Amino acid sequence: MKPYLVSLALGLLVGVIYSVFDVKSPAPPTIALVGLFGMLGGEHLIPLARTVIERVWG
């Protein structure tokens, strides 16, 4: 969990620096990031559903 928090903190710091210097971020458009988030969610959906089904009907 710590690497994720460090990554988030550094990303926020870089975002603030970009904002201070009025530089456009080289990050992909928000819609692309939303798509990636959806892919990650979909990747974990089936294993999660299997676990829930096993616990309920187990």
In short:
InterPro entries: DUF1427, XapX_domain. This protein has 58 residues and is mostly helical.
Explained architecture:
The chain is an all-alpha fold and 58 residues long. The protein has one domain. 81% of the residues lie in helices and 0% in strands. The chain has two helices and no strands. The radius of gyration is 18 Å and the shape is elongated. The two termini are 30 Å apart. This is DUF1427 family protein. It comes from Trinickia violacea.
Any chance you could write out the topology, listing elements then pairs?
Elements: H1 2-20, H2 30-57
Protein name: DUF1427 family protein
Organism: Trinickia violacea
InterPro entries: DUF1427 (IPR009872), XapX_domain (IPR020017)
Q: Using only CA atoms, what is the Rg?
A: 18 Å
Shape: elongated
Domain unit count: 1
Mean pLDDT: 92
User: How many strand units?
Assistant: 0
Strand content: under 5%
Put simply, the count of helices is 2
Question: Which tags fit this structure?
Answer:
single chain; 58 residues; mainly alpha; 0% strand; elongated
